[in-house]
């Protein structure tokens, strides 16, 4: 009988330890390209705790608490470090931490810590392997200097100038064609200089002098 009681007492501490143990699992690596990271902390707990606290810690020594969330059967509260933009969310057997506006300088290893606060005994998980959050550097996009004049104004002015250029060219070509036609008509005229009979060519008189009548002189001879 006494031997049976001793055997039972030996198994009681072992059962309590097994019941109140919290195990946490995290993914080993998380790459961030858009400044936002979502870290999931899966955990198992078989105890009787009703109030819990989950926190996210940065660094190999977990020196920086990034943010935390606490909850019980009726209330959930969350808080974040001023240097981080972080929010925690509890869902059944996991805690989800969302970090945004992250920079490359925040690349580090992060650990999840789950604690059973009440009722006693207090229980927390052993330190997990953690998750390395690698925040990629976002390339700086250089913007070309924009013109002070809007694009539509430049297009409108260019169109007006092109229209007036074509109009002036058309007017010039029309004027040039009319001038050329007038010069052609002026060169095509009739020669109005008087012409004389062929027998007067050797008289020695100018072409414009009238022909003399010599019969009048002959009538006065004796």
Task: Describe the structure in brief.
By secondary structure, the protein is of the alpha+beta class. Helices cover about 25% and strands about 30% of the residues. The N and C termini lie far apart (about 210 Å).
Q: Biggest β-sheet, characterized?
A: 7 strands, mixed
Distance between the termini: 210 Å
Q: Kindly state the mean pLDDT as a whole number?
A: 79
Q: Radius of gyration, Cα only, in angstroms?
A: 56 Å
Question: What is the number of helices?
Answer: 3
Order of helices and strands: HEEEEEEEEEEEHH
Percent helix, as a range, is: 25-40%
Q: How would you describe the shape?
A: rod-shaped
User: What are the low-pLDDT stretches, counting only 5+ consecutive residues below 50?
Assistant: 1-17
Beta content: 25-35%
Structural class of the helices, strands and pairings? alpha+beta
Beta-strand segment tally: 11
Write the layout of secondary structure elements.
Blueprint: H1 2-19, E1 22-25, E2 29-32, E3 37-45, E4 51-58, E5 64-71, E6 76-80, E7 85-91, E8 94-100, E9 108-118, E10 123-124, E11 131-135, H2 151-187, H3 215-218
Parallel strand pairs: 2-11
Antiparallel strand pairs: 1-3, 3-8, 4-5, 4-9, 5-6, 7-8, 9-10, 9-11
Explain the overall architecture:
The strands form 2 sheets. Strands 2, 4, 5, 6, 9, 10 and 11 form a 7-stranded mixed β-sheet that branches. It contains 3 helices and 11 strands. Residues 1-17 have low confidence and may be disordered. It is 27% helix and 32% strand. It has 222 residues and is an alpha+beta fold. The N and C termini lie far apart (210 Å). A hairpin with a 2-residue loop joins β7 (85-91) and β8.
């Amino acid at each position: 009988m006494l031997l049976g009681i001793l055997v039972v007492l030996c198994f009681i501490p072992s059962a309590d330890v097994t019941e109140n143990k919290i195990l946490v699992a995290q993914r080993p690596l998380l790459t961030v390209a858009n400044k936002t990271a979502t870290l999931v902390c899966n955990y198992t707990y078989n105890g009787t705790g009703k109030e819990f606290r989950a926190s996210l810690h940065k660094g190999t020594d977990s020196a920086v608490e990034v943010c935390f969330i606490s909850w019980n059967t009726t209330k959930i509260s969350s808080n974040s470090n001023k240097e981080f933009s972080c929010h925690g969310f509890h869902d059944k057997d996991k805690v989800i931490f969302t970090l945004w506006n992250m920079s490359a300088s925040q690349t580090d290893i992060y650990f999840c810590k789950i604690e059973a606060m009440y009722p006693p005994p207090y229980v927390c998980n052993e330190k997990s392997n953690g998750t390395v959050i690698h925040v990629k550097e976002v390339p700086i996009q250089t913007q070309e200097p924009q013109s002070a004049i809007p694009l539509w104004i430049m297009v409108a002015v260019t169109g007006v100038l092109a229209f007036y250029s074509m109009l002036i060219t058309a007017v010039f070509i029309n004027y040039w064609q009319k001038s050329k036609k007038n010069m052609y008509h002026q060169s095509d005229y009739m020669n109005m200089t008087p012409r004389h009979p062929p027998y007067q060519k050797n008289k020695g008189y100018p072409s414009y002098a009238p022909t003399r009548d010599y019969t009048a002189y002959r009538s006065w001879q004796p």
